[in-house]
Amino acid sequence: MSTTLSTKKITLATAAILVAVAGYFFISTSSADALTPLASVQSGDLVRGEATPAVYYIGADGQRYVFPNSNTYFTWYTDFDNVKFLSDADLGKLKIGGNVTYRPGVTMIKINTDPKTYAVSKDGTLRHVTSEDIAIGLYGTNWNKNVHDMPDSFFGNYTIGSAIVSTSEFVPANETATASTINSDKDLQAPATMSIGSNGYTPVDVTITPGRSIKFTNNDTINHTVTSDDLSWGTGTIQPGDSKIVSFDKAGTFPFFDSYNSQNTGAIYVQ
């Protein structure tokens, strides 16, 4: 007969090189590493800046995603060997897309203000493990050593899915295998592209699905912007050779103009 799943806790030791500060964690270095040009950064790279050594994941959408703490990071990676250093100026050009969530299937989590223990599924979907028998079936007799205490402030990065009432409903190894990368876990897609030149925008309109991004690149020799007609969103000034990325989460038509030349107009159709 199943027994009620107790909320046993475990404190995990973190590596000495990690320091948790204000929701970020950091790696320290004893000497300056060679900086990677922004143009060489690719989807899937791990990056940090010069002055503030927080680590970020570069998504397929061209945005950087924050690892909110060391526990999250180590469900995806075992070390920092592949972290690339960017100049602070180049890092600032990469828009923050959101927080990385735990890799599915690796561990269970709980928070202080919620007595439930959750398994993690795709894109931060939390599924209540409803009994200790099920926890044992999923993670073995030492399941309680595989529960991470997560700060309440991170809980908003997750969504609540259906409860697990049978071990057949959740196979940790399958969940982990399906989320081979953070890109696949979040279904991140490469942004659609639009060029800005002396003759305006090319193409003048783009159709995308909700949740996708547009990368606007200034291929002219003077400054340009992409500014919505109702002034509700915009890229700000894009200098020659630079790019800005804007995400569109909701369906609709989003017309825009160039603040430096109002005759240049275009539109984004999200459907």
Topology:
Blueprint: E1 20-21, E2 24-25, E3 46-48, E4 56-58, E5 64-66, H1 70-76, E6 83-85, H2 88-92, E7 96-99, E8 108-111, E9 114-121, E10 125-128, H3 132-139, E11 147-149, E12 159-160, H4 172-178, H5 182-186, E13 192-197, E14 200-202, E15 205-208, E16 212-218, E17 227-228, E18 243-248, E19 252-258, E20 261-270
Keywords for this entry:
271 residues, mainly beta, Immunoglobulin-like, 3 domains, five-stranded mixed beta sheet, 5 helices, 20 strands
What does this structure look like?
This is EfeO-type cupredoxin-like domain-containing protein. InterPro entries: Cupredoxin, EfeO_Cupredoxin, ET_Amicyanin. It comes from Candidatus Uhrbacteria bacterium CG_4_9_14_3_um_filter_41_35. Residues 186-268 form the EfeO-type cupredoxin-like domain. The N and C termini lie far apart (50 Å). The chain has 271 residues and is mostly beta strands. It has a five-stranded mixed sheet with strand order 6-3-4-5-7, with no helix packed on it. The protein has a five-stranded mixed sheet with strand order 11-8-9-10-12, with no helix packed on it. It has a four-stranded mixed sheet with strand order 14-13-16-18, with no helix packed on it. The protein has three domains: 20-99; 108-185; 192-270, Cupredoxins -  blue copper proteins (Immunoglobulin-like, Sandwich), CATH 2.60.40. Helix content is 12%, strand content 32%. Residues 1-23 have low confidence and may be disordered.
